[in-house]
Design a protein that fits this description.
Number of helices: 14
Number of strands: 14
Distance between the termini: 33 Å
Structural class: alpha+beta
Helix content: 40-55%
Largest sheet: 12 strands, mixed
Radius of gyration: 35 Å
Strand content: 5-15%
Order of helices and strands: HHEEEHEEEEHEHEHEEEHHEHEHHHHH
Length: 456
């Protein structure tokens, strides 16, 4: 009840001179509105920047099979066929920090359409999850192939803009057939343009096919073969599933020894992939995603104790660090501007409150003469200062939010509403009122009632 009477007295005192109260809060209004506007614009820019960097692969992880060694010399990462599509499926289910993961099988060969041919930079066999990892979910035309196409080894493909330009000369390729290593592939979609990556490589010079088609038809591997990268990626044997004669049909399962057959009579299907590509949910979750994948892969590969990993996980740590440093720099800059604005507003509050104490010296003396104690006077002036700052903060939040929306509307800058910044603005407003209003309130509470009543 006492607090309510104090707040009511504060409002009554502020209503005596509304113009001065409004001008007093102007500094806080400008400070808070600039903070809110800059925070929303800054967060929008940071989110846009993070999205662009993520599209370049800041949160992308490469999972490579292990390496073998010959006469003591390592054959390099990927020379051992230890990574399987099942590993990817298990990691997709169990790794909570992963957004998506896709197996990769690569080949390098020519594409033929009519009397034209072209050799793309990348011929990738994968699953539809690859499009999500590379931020390619939005196609220029057509549609993506599905998981059913992957399981059924359907001969469909997606092509990049450069391939469209080189083979179709601007005509729509949707529904047409191209031939890759004598395998007919129906074009079902065209990827949106991406341009060159940070290394200058044309990302639109790409052909994406279900991995089962690349592995068993284009590259001509059998299920027991090592991955294409390890064997040079040329796929020289070609289209093993479309041999014209039944006697040339490939063996889809690795040859088994008599001991293996006796020990496990059930046929085990095994298919290795060249590598896998995964995307963490954010650049900040890359470390946790790596830890989760290592745990799953070691369990899948039955690696116990101190046994070395038979895989290698690589991340774009440099790009993640760049994203973190950029975000920290922008946050620091906004914090400096906010501090300067709020200090200026707080000094204005203190100045006006000192003037108010001087003008109301006789009133303070009269209150003390009828029984008010020093802490009552302190509380009254402190509540007035905090009320002024909170009113200024509320006006500043509305003005800043409206300003950021105008910037988004007319300047097309990305803006993101920040509830955290709004809550912080309210708390900071109250804090500024308390910090800069304390001295005038303390000065008022220390007045001598007799001297105050004599004040002219």
């Amino acid at each position: 009840m006492k607090v309510y009477r104090t707040v009511r007295s504060a409002f009554k005192a502020l209503r005596r001179n509304p113009m001065r109260a409004m001008l007093t809060t102007l500094g806080i209004v400008i400070g808070i509105s600039s903070v809110i506007a800059m925070m929303e614009i800054g967060q929008g820019s940071s989110a846009s920047l993070a999205k662009r960097i993520a599209s370049m692969g800041a949160n992308v992880l490469m999972i490579m099979p292990g390496s073998t060694s010959s006469t003591g010399a390592s054959q390099g990462s990927g020379s051992m066929a230890t990574l399987t599509p099942t590993d990817c499926e298990v990691m997709a289910k169990e790794c909570k920090s992963l957004k998506a993961i896709a197996p990769l099988v690569r080949a390098r060969t020519q594409i033929v359409y009519g009397n034209r041919n072209w050799q793309p930079n990348q011929l990738i066999g994968t699953t539809p999850a690859f499009l999500e990892i590379r931020d390619w979910k939005k196609l220029a035309s057509g549609q993506a192939f599905t998981d059913r196409d992957v399981l059924s080894s359907n001969c469909v493909c997606l092509i990049g803009q450069t391939v469209v330009k080189e083979l179709f000369e601007g005509a729509s390729p949707i529904g047409r057939e191209i031939r890759v290593n004598n395998v007919p592939l129906r074009v079902v979609g065209v990827l949106a343009r991406k341009g060159a990556n940070m290394m200058g490589m044309d990302q639109d010079d790409i052909l994406i096919v279900p991995w089962t088609v690349v592995k068993f038809r284009i590259a001509g591997s059998t299920l027991g073969n090592a991955n294409q990268s390890a064997s040079g990626g040329s796929g020289s044997s070609g289209n093993v599933l479309s041999k014209p004669f039944p006697s040339d049909a490939p063996t889809l399962y690795p040859a088994r020894s008599s001991t293996q057959t006796e020990n496990s009579p059930m046929l085990v299907r095994f298919a290795s992939v060249d590598s896998a590509m995964a995307a963490a949910k954010s650049a900040q979750q890359v470390a946790s995603a790596i830890a989760e994948m290592k745990t799953v892969l070691r369990r899948q590969h039955n690696l116990k104790g101190d046994k070395a990993d038979d895989f290698d996980i690589r991340d774009a740590a440099e790009m993640s660090n760049m994203l973190s440093s950029t975000t920290e720099m922008m946050t620091g800059l906004l914090l400096c501007v906010a501090m300067i604005s709020l200090v200026v507003g707080g000094v204005g509050i203190m100045n006006i409150m000192l003037v108010s104490v001087t003008e109301r010296t006789r009133e303070i003396g009269l209150r003390m003469a009828v029984g008010a104690r020093g802490r009552d006077i302190l509380r009254q002036f402190l509540v007035e200062a905090i009320t002024l700052c909170l009113i200024g903060g509320a006006l500043g939040i509305a003005l800043g939010h409206g300003g950021s929306k105008l910037v988004e509307m007319f300047m097309r800058w990305p803006v993101e509403t920040s509830p955290t910044a709004i809550a912080a603005a309210v708390i900071v407003s109250a804090g500024v009122g308390m910090a800069f209003g304390f001295y005038p309130a303390w000065k008022a509470s220390r007045l001598d009632p007799i001297e105050a009543l004599r004040y002219e």
